[in-house]
Amino acid sequence: MSTKWGLPDGRERAIYYLEQPDTELPNLLKFHASVKYNIPRWVRPTFDILVSTDWEMGHVVALSGHDLCPVLVDLIIKTRDIIGREQRRLATIPPPVEHHPECRGGTQRERCESAWVSTWVLNVGRQVVHVDPLFRLESYKSAYTIQSLVAPGVSEGCLELTKATVLEGDAFDYIYNVCTAALAQIGL
To answer: What would you measure as the largest C-alpha separation in the chain, in angstroms?
Structure first.
């Protein structure tokens, strides 16, 4: 009502109250309100929670009495699907090996590449798609995980160059990039 009647003090007080931890405003409603009532500080945090944590579609039915925008629910579902595909891609298709000049051609390079693929899929890939969020590799943990990788069969020079290239790249920023693109579709 504060937004409708143009009462800035009332609006800020309502926003402040709804941000309190003891206020149980579901994230889906909070995201919808952030878009509908132009509350920018709620948009990205609630959207990130909705697309990266587990929630059931049954919760949408419980909110059916509220004025939910189907376009926003659809955006969340599609974004979650894209993030899932990106996770599977990252888990199964490792970045290419950067060969060190000392790495001899032919079979040595093939061994490095084969060992790198195995190391990536068995170590990094498993963590990227892990079903338990406690063990899932999040982007903020990726640098440590990559730096601590041990890859038997990959020459030391190639391994260090490859790790450096992976750390310089944005492979683990896929969630941020996908969310930014999704919110841009609705003008946010």
So the answer is: 74
Cβ burial, residue 20 (10 Å; 0-12/13-18/19+): exposed
Integer Cα distance of 112 and 155 in angstroms:
6
pLDDT single digits (tens) 31-77: 888 888 888 999 999 899 888 876 665 555 455 555 667 888 889 98
Q: Where are the domains of the chain?
A: 2-68, 87-176
Tokens of 175: 């969630």
pTM: 0.79
Contact assessment for residue 75 and residue 182, using Cβ atoms and an 8 Å cutoff: yes
Phi first, then psi: give them for residue 55, nearest 5 degrees.
Answer: -150, 155
Answer positive or negative: Cα dihedral of 16, 49, 40, 36.
negative
Quick one: which of 129, 123, 136 has its CA closest to 85? 129
Residue with tokens 């948009």: 43
Contact 91, 126 (CB under 8 A): yes
CA distances from 118 to 53, 126, 172 (A): 29, 11, 19
Q: What is the pLDDT of residues 151-168, one digit of tens each?
A: 999 999 999 999 999 999
* Burial classification of residue 165, based on how many CB atoms lie within 10 Å of its CB (0-12 exposed, 13-18 middle, 19 or more buried): middle
Distances (CA, A) of 130 to 4, 88, 122, 125, 155: 45, 10, 12, 8, 28
